[in-house]
Each structure stands twice: as structure tokens, then as C-alpha cells.
Amino acid sequence: MAPTSSLVQDERLSCLFEELAELTGRRNAIDGRIVQIFAEIDRDELWAAAGARSVAHLVAWKAGVSPSRAETLAAVAHRAEQFPRCVAGLREGRLSLDQVGAIAERAADGSDAHLAELAASATVGQLRTALKLQPEPEPEPAPDREPDGESEPVPAPDPGPQPSITTTSDEQYTSWLIRLPHVEAAAFEAALQSHRDALIADWKQQAHIISAPMPSTADAFLRLVNAGRDAEATARPHGQRTTVVMHVDVKDRIASLHLGPLLTDGDRRYLSCDATCEVWFERDGRTIGAGRSTRTVNRRLRRALEHRDRTCVVPGCGATRGLHAHHLQHWEDGGLTELANLALVCPYHHRAHHRGLITISGPADALAVTDHSGRPLSSASLARPPTQPPPEVPPCPGPTGERAQWWWYQPFEPPSTR
Predict the structure, then answer these.
(1) pLDDT digit string (tens) for 72-98?
(2) Mean pLDDT over residues 209-236, rounded?
(3) Which of 20, 89, 111, 325 has the fewest CB atoms inside 10 Å of its own CB, making it the most exposed?
């Protein structure tokens, strides 16, 4: 009875493995098509028009997957053109999304053929180990000297650590170059690191809700600025110096920062909505008055707003930190600073609304959020019962599962540029 029972188990297991190979191949091919769709969205930057903060956010939102899986899909979509053979293996059902995702996240340019061959028999863990063995990219070679033989100019001696701040501006951004002595720089770095640690702690708490990149040093710098701005006036008696001043021409609706560049219409509305900003109205170049002091939301109204909305009101977002109180009817158009005319939005979607990427209209009890084409945004994923047959692909047996002998493995080495 024992041999017969073992034979039945082997036959049953073979049938189950055969079905599993077929289903796995179909799943891989479907993932490959999903990657193609998001690669097109990434290439043409259509994710912003859909009201998403990034491609990974759009994947997690519309595909209804976890943030970690969304990051993998987004990574493969972003580098699909650099790894055509690996992506083709995914689309044909031979490779899994996790295999190609490990390659897309860490592999060097030009290693497509090498890694496509390795992935045909390697597990995800073995692929990650192989990617760790690849050599570090060589630094860019120094430019050659001019052929005329003239010597390079000798740089002027360093005058020492003199504090200085230099700013440059273009149409969209302002760049800051900050120079500090070592002691002051150490204190500045410690403050930035403290604020970044706090942002990362908040980010980890909501990582399962939204897909967002890890907070950067720039995010910590902005948090440091906001923390100083929100401190009590007694702690900074000259706090008015940190107020952003905006000048608005009421006739032509043209705004500029005080002693600074002109603002776009979106930035003008954004600053006059919930930012800590002092607005001065002008006509024909002459100041005619200051903005209404009731533009900003007081603490009591803010608590009521947070109790009502809890998160960013844009569907699919779910952000809970650093939210802005947005005027549904713009403040500069006569909108009142009251609960029925306010909604909580995250900084990204607040700017996206004022720049025309999405539309948030009220009143608050009948809120409507649409993308730039007027399509309503919904927090539900796009998943629905399939109406087409699954793709016809050969069964996927999966990796061989052999123990890797790393002593003979030759990692990919990019060709030397020298």
C-alpha cells in the first residue's frame, strides 16, 4: 500500500505543479502588460495629470497593490527601455515581476543580456546576491587639458570659513548655496537630521496607507523653516521677518514676491490660500491696502476641520501629516474662512489644484475632485472581473532552485570608457 500511495501523491503533485506553472506564466505575462502600461504613463508623465504624486503612488492607487509592490512595478516601468530582454521575459511569462524588479532596482546599465540569462535559472535571492557582486561604477575621467599646453589658472587661496548665503532663481525654483563655519554647520546638520528623523518616523507610520518616497534632507529643511515660523512670538520677537510677503496687482491679477520674482497664477492662489503669507494689494504700482487677516485658519477651526476630514480629501491619497486648509472658493475671489468652505489637502495636491492638474470644488458637504480632463477621482482601484481570456504563454517552471556556487560566477562589468 505504501508504494501505491506514494505513486498517487507523486502524480497528484505533478498535476498541481503543471497547473501552477501555467498559472504562474499567465500571471507573469499579465504583470508584463501592466508594466508596459505604467511605462507609457511614466514616459509621458501622465501620472501627474491623474492626480497622483508619483508613478508608484498611481500604481498603488489604481492597481490596488501594496506600496512595496507598487515600487517594484514602478522601478521596472521606469527602466523598461534599458532592460528590454528582461522585460520581454516577463511579458512572455518566463520571468517573474520580483526577478525583473530586483534587476531594475539595482542593475547597471548595459547588463540586460547578462542578467536575462542569469534570471532564467536564478531565484530572486540569488539575483540580489549577484547584483551586490557587480563592481561599483567608475568615476568620470577628468577632462583633458587643452592641447595648446597652457597651464591651468591657479585658484585663489581660500579665505577661510566665512558665513555666506547665495541665491539664484529661475522660472520655477530658487537655489540656495549656504556656507557656514564647521561649528555652525554641525549645529545646522544636527537640526536637519533631527527633523528628518521625525519625518521618517511619520513616514513609516503611514507607509502602509500611501506610497511616498522617503523624506529627504530638503524636506527636513522645509520642516525646520516651518518649525521656526510656527514658534511663539516671545521666542522670536522679530518673527515678522520670517513672513513671506506677496504683492498683488488687483487689476491684472499679477503677483510677485517682495523684492523677488513674479509668481505664476497657481503659486499666487496657493500662497493666498493657506500659506503663512502677508498680502499687499496694489493698483497701477501703488499700494492700496493689506490682505484680510481672516485668511488663515485659527486653531479652533483647524481642529474642527481635522476632526471632519481626518486625511487629504483627494481620493487615493490618504496623507495625514502636514495637511493644508484649502479654501474651496478661493480666498482672493471672496471665499470665506469657514468650515463649509474649507477642506484638508496635502501639500502636493494643494499645489496640483492651484496649478490646474486637479480640481477640488465644494461646498465641503458635496465635495467633487476631478483630474484636469474633468474625470472624477475615486479612491477605489480599477480592478474588475476580466472580460477577455488570459494571455496564451507557455508554462513557467520557475527557477531551478540549485544552490549557487559564487566562486565561479562572473559578475557583469561595464565596458571601460577610458
Answers:
(1) 999 999 999 999 999 999 999 899 999
(2) 68
(3) 20
Distance, in Å, from the CA atom of 418 to the CA atom of 195, rounded to the nearest integer, reads: 43
Q: Are the CB atoms for 412 and 83 separated by under 8 Å?
A: no
Kindly report the CA angle at 216 between 132 and 194, in degrees rounded to 5?
110
Cell of 39: 511605462
- What pLDDT is stored for residue 21 in this prediction? 87
Q: Which amino acid is at 163?
A: P
Give the burial string for 358-383 (b: 16+ CB within 10 Å, else e): bbbebebeeeebebeeeeebeeeeee
Question: Residue 335: what are its φ and ψ, rounded to 5°?
Answer: -65, 140
Residues 375, 365: Cα–Cα separation, whole Å: 20
Distance CA 39, CA 79 (A): 8
Radius of gyration of the chain from Cα atoms?
Answer: 28
Helix (H) or strand (E) holding 167: strand 164-169
pLDDT band at 408 (very low <50, low <70, confident <90, very high): confident
The C-alpha cell at 196 is 528628518
Band the pLDDT of 360: cuts 50, 70, 90.
very high
pLDDT at residue 281 in the model: 63
Domain ranges of the chain: 2-133, 164-229, 239-294, 306-371
> With a threshold of 0.70, does the pTM exceed it?
no
